[in-house]
Amino acid sequence: MIPKSHPRYLSLMKRERVIEFFDRGILAKAGLIAHGRGEAFDYILGEKTNDFAVKAIKAAASLLLLAEKPVISVNGNTIALAFDEVIELAKLLNCPIEVNLFYKTEDRIRAIKKFFEENRDKIKDIEINFGGDMEIPNLDSNRRFVSEYFYNSDVVLVPLEDGDRAEALVKMGKKVITIDLNPLSRTARTSTITIVDEITRAMPLLVKYIKEFKNKNKEELKEIIDSYDNKKTLEEALRFMSNRLAKLKL
Ligand code: PTJ
């Protein structure tokens, strides 16, 4: 039992959640390692949502609202940490969710289906796909098999993605939005929009801006996207991190 007064309460609770979903067979063993890497980057970011992340979230909200066929791709870590927000987003955008695992096993798929069944009230009316027969070109991993909807989608939200697939999706001509605490990762560098923030902070904000931006017209949304520069935003994130490290004192 972690006391609420613990200075690292939020971070420790996230760990508990990740461990719980690993124990349930939903999160991959490597997902534990990925989470630890994320924690290290978040420490340097000051464990808060910075301006560059808000800028990326606003651009992502605009892109998703303008999309003709948006889709949200989830893996074990995303289900563990942001299931409710993924559901809310799918409802707001009226779009399907696709479960796509890097470390795909029958057992994990079964565990995820069981979790969805336990949450059937929350997910009713949402289309959930577990991949399909369509193949993403230029990709060797298991993640290349996707549903027809995903294959034909124009904007994909892929939090905590691996670099190979992000690159292959961009090559297919898709607009790729990712959430990744590491601004240096290949996913971060190849995606159309990279939100350098922790997923449990970024997703509620994305939901908030999508609700707010629903009232904007197409031109206003387009303007937000056109004025967004992913390379510059990533450089801002890197500058912020190195400045923060340079200023830190014991
Ligand atoms: O469930 P699966 O089988 O699809 O596997 C999922 C993981 C995440 C294990 C897999 O996609 C993987 O190995 O990912 P990578 O290549 O380790 O990339 C994950 C990225 O997400 C890293 O750059 C981490 O810094 C970042 N990250 C980790 N935790 C968080 C995060 N970003 C935002 N919020 C987090 N909580």
What does the model show?
This protein is α/β, with parallel strands linked by helices and 250 residues long. The chain has one domain (51-248): Phosphopantoate/pantothenate synthetase (Rossmann fold, 3-Layer(aba) Sandwich), CATH 3.40.50. 58% of the residues lie in helices and 10% in strands. It has 12 helices and 8 strands. It has helices at residues 9-23, 29-45, 51-66, 76-93, 106-118, 120-123, 148-152, 163-171, 186-190, 199-213, 218-226, 230-247, and strands at 70-74, 97-99, 128-129, 134-135, 145-146, 155-157, 175-179, 193-195. A 6-stranded parallel sheet has the order 3-2-1-6-7-8, with helices on both faces. Strands 4-5 form a two-stranded antiparallel ribbon. Helix 1 (9-23) runs antiparallel to helix 2 (29-45), helix 1 (9-23) crosses helix 4 (76-93) and helix 3 crosses helix 10. The longest helix has 18 residues, at 76-93. The chain is globular and about 55 Å long. The chain starts with 8 loop residues before the first helix and ends with a helix. Bound molecules: ligand PTJ. Residues 28, 30-31, 34-35, 37-38, 41, 75-77, 81, 101-103, 160, 162, 179-182, 185, 198-199 line the site of ligand PTJ.
